[in-house]
Give the backbone structure.
Amino acid sequence: MRILLWHVHGSWTTAFVQGEHEYVVPVLPDRGPDGRGRAQTWDWPASVTEATPDELRDTEFDVVLLQRPHELDQLCEEWTGRRPGADVPCVYVEHNAPQGRITEMRHPAADREDVLIAHVTHFNDLFWDCGGAPTTVIEHGIVDPGHRYTGELPHQAVVINEARRRGRVTGTDLLPRFETAAPIDLFGMGAGELGGFEDVPQSEMHGELGRRRVYTHPIRWTSLGLSLLEAMHLGMPVVGLATTEAIEAVPAGAGVLSTDVDVLVDAVRSYVQDPERAAEDGRRAREAALGRYGLERFLGDWDRTLREVAAREVTA
């Protein structure tokens, strides 16, 4: 089938487009947030094609996959001439945990019976108020980068995008406490503002992460960082806050999770001082990640969901 989706989250989309469908991504001349087109730093198959807003009006789609409120409220209809859910079957993928006063957070598609909300974690499904809208959970899938862990550097790797701006949400304020256990190598967009590595090409990122002894995940409040799952696939032991979906992703023996930062700092120090234990826990982390977040399971879940949504009659 042919699926329209905006290129919003590069890592997630890279996994999604590995399926057997046709994927159309909008493109604008400036390749801004609403028209990034094909990925420039990820390897996408030829089944992903670009289309301008004018071309979208003359293109038929089996399903439209939306990921942001303004795609649902405005952009899809303006660019395609079709109302999501009313004129074309629609899935809204919710990548994020709700922000603000949690008990008052209503999902943008709440009570939309014509839109299926697909959460990427059970945590999201639990915390978002979706009213009467149908929901499902399709957990993340990862394109396996292979076992690349060497742990040769007695450092901890941390991946945070926009670490300074996002502050407490991403646990940026906790980094000085973690740094007492071992040097931190910070990666991600904007990492250079804090003396980190922000210009590492995507093709080299996994190799660089795998050279570090331990992956530290100081995130307080996000859905589930794909960088955490990628680190586990690489064979890295994980130390992180036991918040949101992390407690589901990291089983015992694959790392250390706690809400006590002192416990986590001690865990980092222990891994740095014991390379054999770090490597063994990293192997268990990789095994767990392949079992739960493998690409085959992810694509199979999406295939079933897309077929069900495409088979529904639109309400128009």
About this structure: The two ends are 21 Å apart (CA to CA). The chain has two domains: 2-141+296-311, 153-293. Residues 153-293 form a domain with the Rossmann fold fold (CATH 3.40.50.2000). Residues 66 and 263 are 40 Å apart (CA to CA).
